[in-house]
Design a protein that fits this description.
- This protein is mainly alpha-helical.
- It folds into two domains: about 80 residues, no CATH class; about 70 residues.
- Helix content is about 65%, strand content about 0%.
- Helix 2 runs parallel beside helix 4.
Length: about 180
Amino acid sequence: MTEGMRMEQSLSTRVAARIELMEGWVKNGIPTNVKDIPSSLNGWRTWHRPDLGILRIGSKTSFTKTDPGIGIQVVRIDALMSTLNQRLGVGRRGGKPTKQTKRSYKPEKIRRLEAERERDALKTELVVVSGQWHEARSDLERRTKELESVRVINADLRRTIREREHRIEHLLGELRSAGLREM
């Protein structure tokens, strides 16, 4: 992927790249070669690591939990960030060790609402990804047709050149047989 193509990523693609990276780190662990991991939402917004597929998000106003387009995904980033911060021991204030907290019970209604939010986020992501897929497929079909058209034109031009070369050879042969020389 070229740098120009990378910089043309949409906001939703950049947010999805962060979620994918963070989910991988939560599942498989954080690579040892990554040292500059952000610990805040704003840090995750401005983090720029093209080598990891992460490009800076410039819009402060869109990268919020209440944004109608990507708010659900920002909530997901916040949850993943909290998990990563806990693993890294980031975010604790002061030198006192934190108390071991009891596991809190979440009522069924809250768990259901969270599941519905996650489902809605996944549906939104599916719509975005399927739209990108259809766009890429359409672009590929258009380029394939253009390529085929260029191949047909190229074949026609080659055929015309061969015909003209044969015609020139024929005319030169007639000139030679008439006793005239080429110049």
